[in-house]
Design a protein that fits this description.
Strand 7 and strand 8 (150-156) form a beta hairpin. The chain is mostly beta strands and 472 residues long. 10% of the residues lie in helices and 33% in strands. One of its GO terms (biological process) is culmination involved in sorocarp development.
Length: 472
Amino acid sequence: MRILILLLSFIYIVNSTNTSVPLTQCMSGKVIGTEPLTVYGSCGYGSYNGETTPGTMTATLNQIFYASARCGDCFEITGPKGSTVVRAVNFCGGNECSNDRPYFMTTPNAFSEISDEPLSTIYDAGFRRVSCPTEGPLKVRFQNDTSEYYVNVLLFNNNVGISSVSIKGANMPNAAEMNRQNNSATFSWSQAGFKIQFPATVTATSLYGDKVSVVLKSSDRLKVYEFGKNFAVPQKVVGSPATCLLAKTPTCIYNDSFSQGYDTWSSYSYKDLNVSDTTVTYNKSKASLHINLIGAGSYLSITRAGQFQTDYFKGIKFAIRASRVWNGFNVFFGQQQESCWKPSTNITTEWSEHTVLFSDMKHQHIEKAINFGNKNENDVIMWLDDISFITSPNAPNITAGASAGSEGLNPMTNQTTTTMQMTGTPYAPSEDPTVHGSHSGDEMNHESSAIKSNSTNISIIFVLLFVVLSMF
């Protein structure tokens, strides 16, 4: 009896895991945390604390995802503090939210998991599609406008994306496709003058080809039915890391003006700051960055909203000139002014170019700002231009397509969601089947992946059984 209890406990542990499985490579997006919990969203789940809600770890997605994501899909998002998983419950477009690159508007609850600055924007968030950490089976609820002539249902608690839903009434010779309403989580079916008879079977198909079904005994409005199980979760994509880093920050920081996502608000002891001085220019540029640093300890702080991952870069380069011969110039991260870089020669009234290696300064894997300071007691005017990071040849290769958003490329249509790659190298791009709402010819691969995943679980159970038996 003890053996049976232990065995059943092991089986439960193996099959009840609710961790998320990576389904794409890591990509780059922008994240803010200002989506109020009072917003129900366009997906139809209702209040965050209602019967069909996905909870408080949710997000609104922008129109870049329109062709590749569905309501209920889950994404792992990485910020400077760590990673969390959110479920898509809403979509926005037009002037409602930024549409220049992948964009997540999360709840404050979710944002607090990845950043300690609730009002900030993370410009270089890492993200990828993952399975949802759900518990229990897929569920379906009749909507309030359902009748025997018009069937309207909401599907929820799915662990991977839903590709399609069909229904077969007792008086229907074949199953009929249900219409997804405006990319939401609701599906409807009707046929002019036809009265569907119950019981009816609803079958849902995942993005990876797995099918689950439930028999609906009647069309009682707002009644919830449970499918026999949830979808089979595919294996993670080949070469996918344990978690994504922050995405690679674009190399250009300042050229005539700041690149998006930078500010100088944390600068200290200064005056006459001009981020677009057209009177003093370098080379063929149109403007330069001008600041008057007041006394020792003053500095210009160039801050990256959402912070940046230093591992992608080996250093920074820039052009500089001063209002006088200046031997107090230094460069440092954060508040590490005691561990700064200093040039071997004085800064003069003529432009000069400099390269600073990060190995010459104390720094962390994630930094918020890089500072240009003055150690002299005397004030000095400083001009800067052509400021940029230098990419490291040993940069991490786990954020594929990290700069895609800044180049206008939609990463969701150029990254693989193939979960079982028989050949090829990690990160090899292939078509995302969600773009066309089909399986892109990979349905058998995904089914094989699910079978292999189940086989792995069975193997684990037998190993655990052997271990248990050997104890007695």
